[in-house]
Each structure stands twice: as C-alpha cells, then as structure tokens.
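Thread: Modeling a multi-component assembly for a lab meeting

Hi all, long-time lurker, first post. My supervisor asked me to bring a structural picture of a complex we are working on to next week's group meeting, and I have zero experience with this. I have the sequence lines for every component (489 residues in total). Could someone generate the structure of the whole assembly? Inputs are pasted exactly as I received them:
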Amino acid sequence: MYATTYIKAKDLADAVSQLKSADEGKLLAGGQTLIPTLKQRLTSSDRLIDLTDTGLSGISDEGSSIRIGAMTRHVEVETSELVKSTIPALAALAGGIGDRQVRNCGTIGGSVANNDPSACYPSALLALGATVHTDKRDIAAGDYFTGMFETALDDDEVITAVSFPKPEAASYVKFPNPASRYAMVGVFVAKTSSGVAVAVTGAGQDGVFRHGGLEAALNSSFSAESVDGVAVDDSVLMSDMHASADYRAHLITQMTKRAVATC
Amino acid sequence: MRWISKMSESAIKYGIGALDRRIENRKVLIGECRHTDEVNRKVQLLAYSLHPNVAHNGTAKAALKIGVKEI
Amino acid sequence: MTAVKITVNGQAFEHNVPDNTLLVSFIRETLGLTGTHVGCDTSQCGACVVHIDGRSVKACTMLAAQADGSEITTIEGIANGDELHPMQKAFHENHGLQCGYCTPGMVMSAIELVGENKKLTEKQIREGLEGNICRCTGYHNIVKSVQAAAHEMDI
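Re: Modeling a multi-component assembly
Sure thing. I ran the full set together rather than chain by chain. Output:
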C-alpha cells in the first residue's frame, strides 16, 4: 500500500471538511473493496477518512419505508428483525454478499457509493425505488446510478442513509461467481403499488439497470411463465472471462423466473 | 510436520484401505507453527529461484540486470 | 504515524505504526504473533481471520489504525493454558487439517459460527466458511471438526 494518512472523522461535518481539504481524499466505510484495492496499489489516497465514528449506523422504521444508515454493516441488515419482517428480500440479499468476514465489515453506504457493476445492493435500490440521502440532498435511485462505478455523487458528497419503501412483495436471486460471490447476474424483482420493477446487476455494461420488457410482461401477468417470451438484448451486456454476454442474457431470464417464483 | 500414525493398528483392525486415524500436530493448532516466512534472522541468506514461464524469454538476463548473482 | 492502542488476547499494547500498516502486519510483525497467517494478496483466503470485539474479520482487510481501541483475539489466545479450545480439539481429533496453513483462520471463523448457532447443518457450516480457503483437505474433515466442536460446545 502506498503511504497515506489515516484520519478517524469525529462527525459528519469533520468528514466532509477533511474530504474537501485533501488532494485525493477517500472515505473509508467498511473497507472491504477499498482496502484490497489500496493494498494491491490499484489506487492510492493521500487521506483516508474513516466514517466509523460519524454516527451513520442503524436501521429505523419510517412508516411506509425503512431507513438504513450508510455505515450499517451487511450483517446488521441480514439479521435485522425489522428488515426481515418488512423487506425479507433485502435481508436475504445482504446475507448473500461476499462471505461472513466481508459482511461483518462491509457497509451499505460503501457498496452504494462504489457502484460496482456486480454488487448486489444497487439492484435493490433501483427495483424498490429507494432514496439515497446525502449530506446535501436526497437522490432517487433512478437518478443515482449513472454508469459503471459512476454515481450522481459530487466529489465532496457523503451518503448518510438509504431509504427503502416497503414493497408488497420482493425477491432477489443471483447467480454468484463461485470464487468472489459477486453477482454474475443478479435480479431484484419488486411488486409495489406502482407496478412491478425488475432491476438487473452484474450484467450491464453501464452497471445496474431496469429491464422494461421484463417489467411489461410481469405487469400483464405476474408469473414465471410470462417471462419466457421476453427478448433480452445481449448487445448492452458485459462479456468477460466469467461469462459471455449471450450467457448473461440467458441468466437474466432464468434469475427473473426464479425471483418471480419466490416473490 | 510430524504425524502420529496409528496405521499399523488400524490396518490390523480394519484391513487394507481402512481410514487411517491421525492426530494433528498441536503446534499448528495453537499458532506456534513456524513457516519459512517467519524466520527472520539478522544475518540471513536468502535465495530466490527465478523461473521463466516461457523458455528462453530472457528472465535470467533481466535478473542479472537488477543485481541477482549467477551461481 | 498513528498511535494504536489495542488489547490482544487480554494483553494491552500501544505502538506507533505507519498509517498504511495492515492489521495483520501489526499482529505478525509488530506484536510477533505469527499464528495469524497471510495466504493471499486479495482478501480471499481467510488465513488471517481474527476476532475484533467478538466478530470475525480478515486482518488483512483492515488497517491497524482502524482497530485502535478494540479487543482482538487471535489463534494464540483461545486455548486455556494447556487445554485446547473445543474447536482446536475437534480439528486435532478429526484430522481437520493437513498442512495447517489455513487452520488458524478456519478455527477463528468456525468459533464465531458455532457461537451463533450450535445446531449447524453441514450446509450452514460450508456456507459459513465460504471466506476460508483450504487447499489440502477438500473441506470434508473441516466440516466434521466443526460439527464435532458444535456438539461439544452445546453440552
């Protein structure tokens, strides 16, 4: 790891001012992506700003939605009685991220800020119509994810929480890469009062996306069979050593069917 | 590593192909096992073996350039 | 440099370390506790798993500075004098290791796993140890060891 300066931010305001005054400051949340990237010298930072003490952790019931603090660890979402009873698909998603040790450290804010094209959380935000709260504003999930590892966040903006509206039903199914447990394809299906939403992660060249064709089919008939005839365009999908775009297109259909069946 | 083998016993007891009961080295279980990386003497000779992954690809020459001595 | 105050296996330490020091380097090189291993560069193998304030963490994926003020337990700290921890004993008796390199991480992960649920199924054990890679055993006897320990710790 290149030399760096570590700072434990006292509160949110301190974190923001530290971030503003650094040349290449990076926020350190759970560190489960950032630290491996740093230690392999794939990135560097002159100032690592640890958010542990900024009080951004915790899960609360807000009536029609639940609010999860940015520093809430995956294990807390996985085991939260509130999440399990209101959005069980979200608890299950958190419980399927990485391995135990990753879930003991990794945070929702870190995952959402990084917007890895194969991360699980972005699909939940998009399908459930979540809101990303920052120190400056509220951003609708639909406007938040702008491309692979790209988000609508400003350079000095800090995510404080994510709010998830409670759906009528929801399910997340992923086909995990057996080595990394990242989604080769992950599909989050949510049924809300405004219809069915289908968000796909792990497959798109521009990161997470909603699939209009699958949503239209499921809105007319919510059954696994209704997905069968839907065309999935593989020209916008990733192709890499793990799976071809064509294979990913096939997985999108299959994961959607499984998600609908378990919804 | 030292194995405490009860091969002869079990072979007599259960015959050819019987599962051999072994008891593991205690040191490995309590974190006292030492691996080569953990030997760090002040006056210590280190030897590295460099292998090219392709024949005749010049790894040896490159190694000489960075100060590796040929033996 | 950052001053790191830490309790490891019940003993308090205070050291100044460069900010980019990984916790595993701190444990192995500064404190000399080499039972915690480094088996990869990519945070995948789990040989470095230790407990920080009771939860299992990969010590290679955390800075020593982040662990300031915490209580750490390593493989050296779980036996009670000469008496092995039930998990160590189970690995000892069930041939749960061969070369032993992954064992410290396996044991630490498994202790957390069994601490949460003593009626683990084989599937739960395999899933619970997803973050630990073993190149020798094929996991079969590791699973057996954890089952044996869970049974022992349940009584």
